[in-house]
Amino acid sequence: MDGQDARVPTISPRRPFRGVATTFGALVWAGFRRWASYRQATMAGSFTNIVFGFLRCYVLLAVAAATVNGRPAGYDETQLVTYVWVGQGLLTVVALLGWSELSDRIRSGEVTVDLLRPVHPVVSYLAPDLGRALHRMMTRFVPPVLVGALVFDLYVPGRWWTVPLFAVSVVLAVVISFGCRFLVNATAFWLHDARGPVMLWTLAGGALAGLYFPLRLLPHGLAVLLWVGTPFPGMLQTPLDVLTERDPPALQAGLVGLQVVWAGALLAACAAVQRRAERRLVAQGG
């Protein structure tokens, strides 16, 4: 075509990694640009997060004041404040409160288009979701943290590796959240309407991930069971505990390692469910 670059990125047999990286990066950028178009919704959402940040913060400070040593579950006041405000910022980054794009496409039949694309469906949804998380990190994470820092004294990490470890933990939290959301939405292949599972996910996700209160306030055995037996704490509780240095270095790194295990297991489960769903669509003539 004259005057235009009509080249399409392809995966060359000689440079397969370069082609995969280029395609994946393009999908991430597409997800970022998509969410960047919702400017007014972003501003309104940030304001809402800040309002609820004040409410949650004063509730937990009241709990701390009513505790004998002033350290509920081992958190001091600055750690609690940081837990709340950084948690408010991560809420939309991790996307705990609902996602139904895949289930809507399954119900409408548009998912068949996804199966015709040269990119695996799990990857085609994961990459734009990472772009969404990057946009949310820039627009929805920063404002609540800045407001919290202006009004309260936030915890300053004392270990040099805490901040980069926190960044890795946040990325893993997004992947874990995506895996859970994909599996919940994939129930529409069998139920044809996943609104019930999505609503259940929205209710359980916030409570079991540590959004409403730190999970360490629960009995020790129950907290350990949630951490080891479910992926929920890895979506919010773990990044916040890593940032506030709630644990010694070995346990701090171990919690991130547990996130790696859950992220890999959930992505493998997503791929397996997708293969099973494709066979079901063929059996139904879809």
UniProtKB/TrEMBL annotation:
Residue spans crossing the bilayer: 17-35, 47-68, 80-99, 141-158, 164-184, 196-215, 250-273
Keywords of this entry: Membrane, Transmembrane, Transmembrane helix
Pfam families on file: ABC2_membrane_6 (PF06182)
Taxonomic superkingdom: Bacteria
Protein name as catalogued: ABC-2 type transport system permease protein
Native source organism of the sequence: Krasilnikovia cinnamomea
Classification of source organism: Bacteria, Bacillati, Actinomycetota, Actinomycetes, Micromonosporales
